Amino acid sequence: MKPLIRHILLLNIALDIVILDQLSKWGITELALRPNTGEESVGIIDWITHAPERISFTQIEILPFFSLVMVWNQGISFGLLNQDGDIGAMILLILPLIITAIFLIWLFKTNSWLQGIAISLVIGGAIGNVIDRLRFGAVIDFLDFHIAGYHWPAFNLADSCVVVGIALLIFHSIFLEKAT
């Protein structure tokens, strides 16, 4: 396959992840969690065109070990470096964009489909969360797994894509790259 076609397909994967991430955040926030607080839902067009008011923490138990929750993550993955300061917020906005630029360069240099897909997952996830930071000043996290009172930090589709992408990159690096 020609490199240009491969790059377009891989960029399309990243774009699809951004779209699915944003749709999942709207759907969970506006169709499940906001009504749970007694507030009126915001339609998809309104949600896209202007960021609605943040809703406070709410929770809907789905299974004994899984709930949908409303968490505004102002830090990085899993709530690390959760800061309210302007400098911290700026760093948490600019750093993912720099990393995304580096990953884009890597995407255009790779000849491996698996590595390209992994990089696309990371790019799509990073951009999905950057969009939240720009719109809301925090990332929407809503998936909450727990057992016996212990909770894994809440996360979202974008976070999942970044983790899976990094895991695939590590797998590729260990098992598939030829030693030089």
- Mean pLDDT score: 93
Number of strands: 4
The poorly predicted ranges are none
**In what range is the share of β-strand residues?**
5-15%
Overall shape: it is globular
How are strands sequenced across the largest beta sheet?
1-2-3-4
- Structural class, by secondary structure, is alpha+beta
Number of helices, where a helix is a run of at least 4 consecutive DSSP H or I residues: 5
Q: What fraction, in percent, of the residue positions are helical?
A: 55-70%
Provide the succession of SSEs. Answer: HHEEHHEEH
Largest sheet: 4 strands, antiparallel
Radius of gyration: 18 Å
**The number of domains:** 1
Write the layout of secondary structure elements.
Elements: H1 3-36, H2 44-49, E1 59-63, E2 66-73, H3 86-109, H4 113-136, E3 139-147, E4 150-151, H5 157-176
Antiparallel strand pairs: 1-2, 2-3, 3-4
Structure characterization notes:
By secondary structure, this protein is of the alpha+beta class. It has one domain (3-175). It is 60% helix and 13% strand. The chain is built from 5 helices and 4 strands, in the order H-H-E-E-H-H-E-E-H. It has helices at residues 3-36, 44-49, 86-109, 113-136, 157-176, and strands at 59-63, 66-73, 139-147, 150-151. A 4-stranded antiparallel sheet has the order 1-2-3-4. The longest helix has 34 residues, at 3-36. The mean pLDDT is 93.
Provide a quick synopsis of the model:
The chain has 180 residues and is an alpha+beta fold. 60% of the residues lie in helices and 13% in strands.
